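Translate sequence into C-alpha cells.
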Amino acid sequence: MPKNAEPYYTIYNYDRTIPLAVLITVFVLLLLLIGQREGANACLSIVFTLTFIIRVLLPALYGGASLVGMGYVTVLLSTAVTLILLHGISIQCLLSIGATMTGELVACGMFTVFSQLLHLTGLQTDCAEGLLLIAQNTGLDIRMLLFAGMMIASLGAVMDVAVSVLSATREVALASGKAERKALFNSAMRLGQDMIGAIFYGRTERPRQAS
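Result follows.
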C-alpha cells in the first residue's frame, strides 16, 4: 500500500467467538447436569477425538500419510475410547466396538462404490481451489480427503445405532431371563427397523406383537 494512501477496511463476517463460547459452555453444563457421569465421559471422549484430529490426524495428512489408514486409526481410537468410558472394559464394550467398526466398513464400502459411479472426487466443492494450493506444498491427497471425511462424519451415526441396539437387546435379555438367541436376534432386528423408521420417516412404527 502506498505511504500516503488512506487505509481501507471491510467487514468480512461477524465475530461469533463469544456466542459460540457461550453455546459450548451451556451445552457442556447441560451434558454434565443431565448425563452426570456419562455426560462427563462423553465430554472426555469429545475432547480426545478433537485433540487427536488436530494434533495427530491433520499433521499426518499434511505430511503425506495415508488418508485411509489415518482415517481408520482415528475412527478405531475414537470408538474405543468412547465405548470404554461408557461401558468399561467388558463384553458389551467389545461387541459395541465390533459392531461399530463393521458398520464403518459397510459405509466405507458403499461410499467407495457409489463415489466411483457418481464421479465424486471432492474437487467439486467451493474450497477445492484452496485445497489444491495446500496440496502443492504438502503431501495432502485431495482425492482421498473426501473418503476420510466420510469415515469420520459417519462414525457418530454408526456408533449411535450400534450402541443403542446392543444396549436395548441386553436389557431385553436381562428382563426375560434365559431368552433364546433367535428371539433376541429378532428383537434386535425389530429395534433396528424401528430406528430406521424413526430416522427416515420421522416417526416410529406401531408396536408389534411379541413373537
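Note: Residues 38-151 form one domain.
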